[in-house]
Amino acid sequence: MSTDCLFCKIIAGDIPSEQVYHDEHVVVFKDINPKAQVHLLIVPREHIISLNHLDAKHDDLMTYCMHLLPKIAKEQGLEDGFRTVINTGAGGGQIVFHLHIHLLGGEGLSGAGFSRAI
Ligand code: AMP
Ligand code: ZN
């Protein structure tokens, strides 16, 4: 928990969010500025700043997130597939410095998508 972190405040319930899933490891809520019909953020409860701040003790958590993604996508009706994005550091476009995975799908998602700013 970091007291000046937006996502820690959302996880604590101090700032409202549209949650679609939560368990003891992660919280999943809707992005406030969606870039596609479905745009969710998978956020570990632990305050990890970014991929640059992972170490081996996070291996199980990250594997857990990878397995959770297709389950959440299916629940959202994304049978055809989905896109995941992790922005890392200011140079990678990260704005909120609490590790999170963007899950995007449905209408509005462009083809290859590598030039899309998310
Ligand atoms: P990133 O650039 O990967 O750090 O993305 C941060 C994301 O958080 C952006 O897509 C924002 O739209 C989203 N965001 C910012 N504030 C909120 C909020 N209060 N609730 C939900 N999503 C938010
Ligand atoms: Zn945080």
What does this structure look like?
The protein is of the alpha+beta class. It has a single domain, classed as HIT-like (HIT family, subunit A), CATH 3.30.428. About 20% of the residues lie in helices and about 20% in strands. It has a five-stranded antiparallel sheet, covered by helices on one side. A hairpin with a 3-residue loop joins strand 1 and strand 2. The longest helix has 17 residues. Bound molecules: adenosine monophosphate (AMP) and zinc ion. The site of zinc ion has 6 residues, from helix 1.
Label the CATH architecture. 2-Layer Sandwich
Helix content: 10-25%
Bound ligands, named by name, code or SMILES:
adenosine monophosphate, zinc ion
Please give the order of strands in the largest beta sheet.
Answer: 1-2-3-5-4
Low-confidence stretches: none
Overall shape: globular
The biggest beta sheet is recorded as: 5 strands, antiparallel
Taken together, the total number of domains comes to: 1
Query: CATH topology, which one?
Result: HIT family, subunit A
CATH class: Alpha Beta
Round the Cα radius of gyration to an integer and report it: 14 Å
Strand tally: 5
